[in-house]
Write a structure and sequence with these properties.
Helices cover about 75% and strands about 0% of the residues. It is built from 10 helices and no strands.
Length: about 220
């Protein structure tokens, strides 16, 4: 078994155990996610310093694509959840019992950093011998399955492929981390929920987002 795949299995298990233990002893909200994420980052610090890659500067095209893809995938997730899963689309319910800053730190900064280490640095890299496309697809599907919810799993798997593409393009974890952080922090923005109550605004956002994503795909991600 590839060394990076072994690292993924070991660190992912430790990451999950740490989070579960925090929950079992009664730590509320997203604090367990925050604690387990910080522990993982500290454990994997040597891999962070060795994965600096070339100098990364986030481009406006990457930000625009991230925002556009966020809206498209969110609208699709909301539609599928409310029409086929017989439930309302909501964020992690644990977020309701912890402060906003803790939620933003856990889901918007520490969570993305931990997940990029696990799924891109270890799993994606470890599966590369079978080919970059297969590695991206398999690691992204596993990333989706780890979210333990059908709709959120599909959503995460789609984003997983984006993270893999950006990571491979820039050869730095900073790239997928930046995209992951922006997309997760956008979940705390009221713009999405405001747009859902205004049909015209929703249609405009869908049109602009679709055009942006299609143009990016047509240009094979050159602007990212």
């Amino acid at each position: 078994m590839n060394e990076d795949v072994k690292r993924f299995l070991i660190y992912f298990t430790l990451y999950r155990i740490c989070g579960q233990l925090c929950s079992l002893i009664g730590i509320p909200g997203l604090y367990p996610n925050l604690i387990s994420g910080l522990c993982l980052i500290l454990l994997c610090r040597p891999f962070l310093t060795s994965n600096q890659g070339k100098r990364f500067r986030i481009r406006s095209g990457l930000i625009l694509f991230t925002i556009s893809f966020f809206f498209l995938t969110q609208y699709i997730s909301i539609y599928l959840t409310e029409n086929f899963h017989n439930s309302k689309f909501i964020m992690d319910q644990r977020a309701e019992i912890s402060p906003l800053l803790v939620n933003a730190a856990a889901a918007g900064i520490i969570g993305p950093a931990a997940e990029e280490l696990l799924f891109r640095r270890f799993l994606f890299e470890g599966l590369k011998p079978m080919g970059k496309v297969k590695s991206s697809l398999i690691s992204s599907v596993i990333f989706g399955l780890c979210h333990r919810h059908v709709i959120q799993g599909i959503y995460a798997a789609l984003w997983g492929n984006v993270f893999c593409f950006v990571y491979e393009k820039h050869h730095s974890l900073k790239a997928p981390f930046s995209v992951h952080m922006i997309s997760n922090l956008l979940s705390f923005s009221p713009i999405l929920w405001i747009s859902l109550n205004h049909f015209c605004l929703t249609v405009c956002i869908i049109f602009i987002s679709t055009w942006t994503v299609c143009l990016t795909i047509k240009k094979k991600g050159e602007c990212l």
